[in-house]
Design a protein that fits this description.
Helices cover 54% and strands 0% of the residues. By secondary structure, the protein is mostly helical. The protein has one domain. The longest helix is centred in the last third of the chain and has 31 residues. The radius of gyration is 34 Å and the shape is elongated. It starts with 23 loop residues before the first helix and ends with a helix.
């Protein structure tokens, strides 16, 4: 038995207010949270301001880029071009050999 469930999402956007019209000296004198207690309270509330991005191994990155469609297309096109050039030179040599006469 299926029921029709309709999900409704509401986006609440709030503009954050921050000072932008102060002098340069005002911003240079900023001290952050001010006290160690406030800093610890913010740290307890929000956690450590750290984002750990894993760096993949070089081999993994190389493999990923080698199988990318555009790279495969480029390599295939270059090999095709080289094969056509080699075939053209070979046929020209054969034609030239057929038309030369030795007296």
């Amino acid at each position: 038995m299926q029921t029709n469930v309709r999900a409704t999402y509401v986006c609440v956007c709030v503009c954050v207010r921050y000072p932008t019209r102060e002098t340069f000296e005002y911003y240079m004198k900023a001290t952050g949270h001010g006290t160690e207690a406030k800093t610890l309270a913010v740290h307890d509330k929000y956690g450590l301001n750290k984002f750990d991005v894993p760096v993949p191994a070089f081999g993994m990155l190389l493999k990923e880029h080698l199988v990318a469609p555009f790279f495969v297309f480029q390599v295939r096109g270059a090999l095709r071009h080289l094969c056509q050039r080699a075939l053209w030179h070979t046929t020209m040599r054969c034609r030239a050999a057929q038309h030369t006469r030795v007296f």
